[in-house]
């Protein structure tokens, strides 16, 4: 039996990757009042933008990653302009369905351009270091570190900057914020760009850690959804905690149940949270 | 523009119906071609295999027609593309059966397509022979209209185990498989043979597709300390799994199917990760005269594991029809398949030789390019050679042939 610490560490890395789209998903839900299921497809978009830079322009992976942040943010912005903005005053249900449509379109654009085959970045695969019986990969540490920094930046932005405060105000009460002179559309644009960038960055991590294919993001939607629900919709720290818990439970669950049922763990978490504490972990404060 | 009135259409189709519906005996005496359909994947996931299969079938038919046809009647081929898609496959099969009136459909590839087309063929009494591996293909009451030249998963599992046992240093083996319709049946056969040979099965589990990483699956399997990990997956998940095994410091052996451990795998996983990984797949019968004739007739055919099977499928269908003494139907093919393919009988390696002996009233036993082509009662082949390959210096190199 391998040490439980190994599973927890594996779960932390998975959770770290999940946290970025979970935060984007959660904040955009709060701000625009609908669950945007296209967020998980932004991971795919990000991974392929970085692939184009890494393979096409021979950019090093770090530069490609930055390019993916900007590129996916821009794609998210364009999607908002074309698909969601004209529907701003519709019911959340219509928008949620529209977001599923957007996810299909993006996925197939990726397919059309890059094909259906899986790809990999041009980076060497390295063996993990072993410390006290715990195997720790260099790439995994890097992913976890960058994810934490990115989340800290996002949180600082929300709490300290004018735009971040305006964002939270709009999320709390869009009408009141607009009356008080908050430029609602600009706030939404900034949040959309930021959310897209977070998800796109996570997509590069995912491609870096595993491999890149047009369905890579869509496969994560249940886990992302579970993390956001568990954390409490609208809370960035909540989404982070939710993602880490989902990651650890999914990985450690492999010890007890057959790995075939990994996805069921996400569903089970959603079910339990909605039954026991529908507001999520951070629900009381939100 | 001429418009066809309903009455004219009725008349026309009535006449056509009369001609086509006339007793087979009447038509059999003519030199009317025998319609046979191909349903290969020319596009889609199987698109790299279908064209070679179709070329092999065409080459066999050219030889049949040059040799005077089947009991004097030439073969007319009708080609359809199944797009490696069950729905497209069904549409194409409907067209072959209803419009072209084929008596046999040869060379389906994907199990999903074969399974979807199967009920249509059984209902229309059209003979169907393909290269699909899923056990369900030959299961159920298909009345003998279905057969295949690809080993079923049980035979595959046993052949993989035979190779693993031959490697004496592999005392502890783990079976790790992607969730597919054949993962369990393959695993049962594989681990069953190994256990009987005294090999320890350290772990045995099925994993899910499309997971961001397989770190915990890898953690679990490495903890059982295996000498060999049998990785039964497709290329994309095998890449992630192999990378995670490498990152986790696994230094033992890995064995997988060649359709997963291919050039795409080596490119995706990288040379360091892929180096030394073993793979197996069904091999053709390289020494067979039928294989020599096949490889001379079909350019690049030796690159495909399925083209030799397509060659044999068309030859078997033609021989079974030749044994039918002038009657032509799917039922004749299924009734005579085993008589021309299985022992006893004089061994023949081509349609021309077989048809000559059949005309003299002798029994024959066709031995093909892909194997000995002997079928059991449900339409599965009884044995097949397998080739073992290993990734060496970034290329998958053939190492040996495992004979049944």
Description:
The complex is a heterodimer of chains A (286) and B (404). With 286 residues, chain A is mainly alpha-helical. Chain A is 72% helix and 2% strand. Chain A has helices at 4-32, 39-56, 61-84, 92-114, 138-160, 162-172, 174-179, 184-209, 221-231, 236-256, 262-276, and strands spanning 129-131, 134-136. Chain A has a two-stranded antiparallel sheet. The longest helix of chain A is centred in the N-terminal third of the chain and has 29 residues, at 4-32. The N and C termini of chain B lie far apart (64 Å). The longest helix of chain B has 17 residues, at 50-66. Chain B has 2 domains: 32-151 and 286-366, Response regulator (Rossmann fold), CATH 3.40.50.2300; 154-281 and 385-402, Rossmann fold, CATH 3.40.50.2300. In chain B, 42% of the residues lie in helices and 19% in strands. Chain B has helices at residues 6-21, 24-28, 50-66, 86-98, 111-124, 153-166, 183-196, 215-222, 235-247, 263-269, 271-274, 289-297, 307-322, 330-341, 351-359; strands at 34-40, 75-81, 104-108, 127-130, 146-148, 172-178, 200-207, 228-232, 253-257, 278-282, 346-348, 364-366, 386-392, 395-402. By secondary structure, chain B is α/β, with parallel strands linked by helices. Chains A and B meet through helix 1 and helix 10 of A and strand 7, helix 8, helix 9 and helix 10 of B.
């Amino acid at each position: 039996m391998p040490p439980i610490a190994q599973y927890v560490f594996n779960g932390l890395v998975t959770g770290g990757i999940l946290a970025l789209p979970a935060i984007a998903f959660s904040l955009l839900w709060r701000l625009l009042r609908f669950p945007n299921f296209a967020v998980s497809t932004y991971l795919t978009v990000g991974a392929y933008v970085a692939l184009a830079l890494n393979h096409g322009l021979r950019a090093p992976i770090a530069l490609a990653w930055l390019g993916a942040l900007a590129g996916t943010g821009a794609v998210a912005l364009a999607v908002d302009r074309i698909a969601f903005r004209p529907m701003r005053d519709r019911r959340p249900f219509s928008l949620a369905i529209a977001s599923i449509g957007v996810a299909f379109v993006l996925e197939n654009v990726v397919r059309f351009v890059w094909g259906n085959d899986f790809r990999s970045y041009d980076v060497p695969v390295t063996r993990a270091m072993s410390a006290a019986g715990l195997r720790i990969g260099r790439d995994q540490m890097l992913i976890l570190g960058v994810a934490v920094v990115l989340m800290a930046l996002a949180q600082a932005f929300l709490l300290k900057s004018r735009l971040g405060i305006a964002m939270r105000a709009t999320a709390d009460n869009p009408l009141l914020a607009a009356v008080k002179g908050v430029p609602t559309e600009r706030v939404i644009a900034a949040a959309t760009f930021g959310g897209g960038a977070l998800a796109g960055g996570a997509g590069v991590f995912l491609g870096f850690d595993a491999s890149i294919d047009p369905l890579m993001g869509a496969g994560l939607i249940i886990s992302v959804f579970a993390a956001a629900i568990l954390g409490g919709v609208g809370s960035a720290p909540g989404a982070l905690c939710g993602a880490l818990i989902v990651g650890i439970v999914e990985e450690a669950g492999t010890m007890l149940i057959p790995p075939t049922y990994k996805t069921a763990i996400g569903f089970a978490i959603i079910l339990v949270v909605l039954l026991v504490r529908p507001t999520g972990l951070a629900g009381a404060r939100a | 523009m001429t418009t066809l009135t309903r009455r004219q259409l009725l008349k026309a189709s009535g006449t056509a119906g009369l001609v086509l519906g006339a007793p087979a005996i009447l038509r059999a005496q003519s030199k009317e071609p025998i319609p046979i359909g191909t349903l290969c994947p020319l596009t889609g996931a199987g698109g790299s295999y279908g064209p070679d299969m179709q070329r092999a079938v065409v080459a066999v038919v050219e030889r049949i027609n040059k040799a005077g046809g089947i009991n004097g009647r030439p073969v007319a081929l009708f080609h359809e593309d199944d797009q490696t898609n069950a729905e497209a496959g069904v549409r194409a099969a409907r067209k072959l059966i209803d419009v072209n009136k084929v008596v046999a459909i040869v060379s389906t590839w994907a199990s999903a397509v074969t399974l979807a087309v199967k009920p249509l063929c059984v209902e229309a009494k059209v003979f169907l022979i393909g290269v699909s591996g899923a056990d369900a293909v030959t299961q159920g009451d298909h009345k003998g209209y279905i057969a295949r030249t690809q080993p079923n998963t049980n035979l595959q599992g046993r052949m993989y185990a035979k190779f693993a046992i031959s490697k004496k240093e592999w005392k502890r083996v783990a079976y790790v498989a992607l969730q597919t319709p054949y993962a369990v049946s393959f695993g049962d056969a594989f681990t069953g043979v190994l256990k009987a040979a005294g090999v320890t099965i350290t772990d045995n589990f099925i994993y899910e597709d499309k997971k961001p990483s397989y770190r915990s699956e890898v953690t679990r399997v490495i903890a059982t300390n295996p000498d060999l990990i049998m990785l039964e997956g497709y290329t994309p998940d095998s890449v992630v799994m192999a990378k995670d095994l490498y990152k986790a410091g696994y230094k033992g052996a890995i064995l997988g199917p060649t359709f997963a451990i291919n050039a795409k795998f080596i490119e995706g996983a990288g040379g360091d990760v892929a180096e030394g990984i073993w793979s197996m797949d069904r091999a053709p019968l390289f020494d067979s005269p039928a294989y020599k004739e096949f490889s001379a007739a079909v350019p690049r055919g030796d690159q495909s594991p399925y083209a030799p099977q397509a060659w044999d499928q068309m030859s078997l269908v033609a021989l079974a029809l030749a044994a039918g003494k002038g009657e032509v139907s799917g039922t004749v093919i299924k009734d005579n398949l085993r008589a021309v393919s299985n022992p006893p009988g004089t061994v023949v390696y081509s349609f021309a030789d077989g048809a000559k002996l059949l005309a003299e009233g002798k029994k024959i036993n066709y031995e093909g390019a892909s194997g000995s082509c002997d079928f059991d009662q449900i339409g599965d082949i009884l044995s097949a050679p397998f080739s073992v390959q290993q990734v060496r210096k970034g290329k998958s190199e053939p190492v040996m042939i495992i004979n049944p």
